[in-house]
Amino acid sequence: MVSSSCLHSVLDTAVNGIIVIDDNGTILIYNRACENMFGYKSAEVVGKNVNTLMPSAIAKQHDQFIRNYLKSGDPKVVGIGREVVGRHKDGTEIPIELSVGEAQTESGHQFIGVLKDLRATKEYEERLRVLQSNLVTMTRVNALDEMGAAIAHEVNQPLTALMLYLQTAARRARAADQPDDPMISLMDKAVVEAERAGQIIQRMRNFVERQAPQCIGTGLATLIDDCLELVRVGHEADDVEFISTFVDYNYQLELDSVQIQQILVNLIRNAGEAVKDQPVKQVVVSVERDDDNVFVKVMDTGPGLDEEAVSHLFKAFTGTKRRGLGIGLAISRSIAQNHGGDLLVEPYEEGKGATFTLRLPVNSKATS
Amino acid sequence: MGFVVIYIVEDDVSVRDAIARMFESLELSCTAFADGESFLSDASPRIDDTVFVDLHLPGLAGSDLIEKVAALDEAPQIVAISGQPLWKITRDLPKITTTPVVRKPLKEQDLLVYV
User: Fold this and answer.
1) What does the pLDDT read at residue A368?
2) How many other C-beta atoms are found inside a 10 Å radius of the C-beta of residue A151?
3) What percent of chain A has pLDDT over 70?
4) ipTM
5) Domains of chain A (ranges plus CATH)?
6) Helix (H, G, I), strand (E, B) or coil at A29
7) What residue ranges do the domains of chain B occupy?
8) Stretch among A224-233, A241-250, B37-46 having the lowest mean pLDDT
């Protein structure tokens, strides 16, 4: 037989919360992990109804839940386990993974609950979710912006030439000895239409201009850690090692964190893909600094990129990956350039993996 | 006052030609260059002249060219031309000068106000 003191030390050693109640819902046992989870001391809750530990909406119904189960034997949680919500002494709600067992004892029917605090897990999942959805949105917005800006800029040139040619021709026609009025009228109409096309381009450009980088002071080390975390999610299965060697957590840089994150995630994800089938699977992010620039390097232990591959690397729509448009690096580079920086690939070295360098100016002037 | 010259530094061949033709049709003397380097080596602008500089040039950047020209003794009037978004223009333009900027697409009136 196990002694009672031994049983109590087992209960108090458990990482998970353990609560035992009787068939009235009265708490009989409440271990130390529960004290940390709920903020109540054992002495405060033992002998009270377990619904003290629940948000009021559920607390009201809990006695009925027990009665229903005892009457019908139809389990809703006993032997199944589920995610529930508890209430801390200070009123905040706590996500909990609860499993419940039952026992017939000399003193009656008892239920044993094992509780796992999900707060840390939830916060982490939520943070990752927000980061990921930001990135997805930004990728779409940037792809559109790039196209819009490219069209605006490319069409601008011939349109400018067209407008000036037309205006010059119209003036010459007016200055002729015998002005051809129908011809002049046609040219004036053409000028109006060219003007209209110009206004469309301007509107398009105004739209793109709203997307200028929003630069604020950002902790670079934390930003890199976040990126690695995001990529790790997709690489749980293969044992790729993602490492950051930059640990100066006080170092701040003026940048648009979501946009820079997008570049780094793109680079780190590519690196992860490149090392997947290699004997050594490692991706290392390091940071170098000089007076004017910060260089964030993403190195991998993959097969490296030869000259042929490098020459196509930053062109849109030339990607070799089955997924994606091959627009990632082109956009990444243009984001870097919008920050006053650049994105470069180090020259190929036999036996070495690929290294991409993101250069960012220390005093980024990319604010609008 | 001597003979006033208008200079154009613009890499796009049709924009350069169109601007030059427009000034010529108004009987203004006009010389065009495809890049900043050839302008600096071949042109000798004077104080009454006007230089139109496209900000987006191959080689020597438009902003650097503007800085160099503005630093000349008896510097001519300088006007920047750009098809870039506004925030890129403000980032690229030298801070010290108060260079006016004409944005593409443009009409002849946009250029004629400066000559």
Assistant:
1) 33
2) 14
3) 88
4) 0.90
5) 4-117 (3.30.450.20), 124-209 (1.10.287.130), 216-361 (3.30.565.10)
6) strand
7) 5-112
8) A224-233
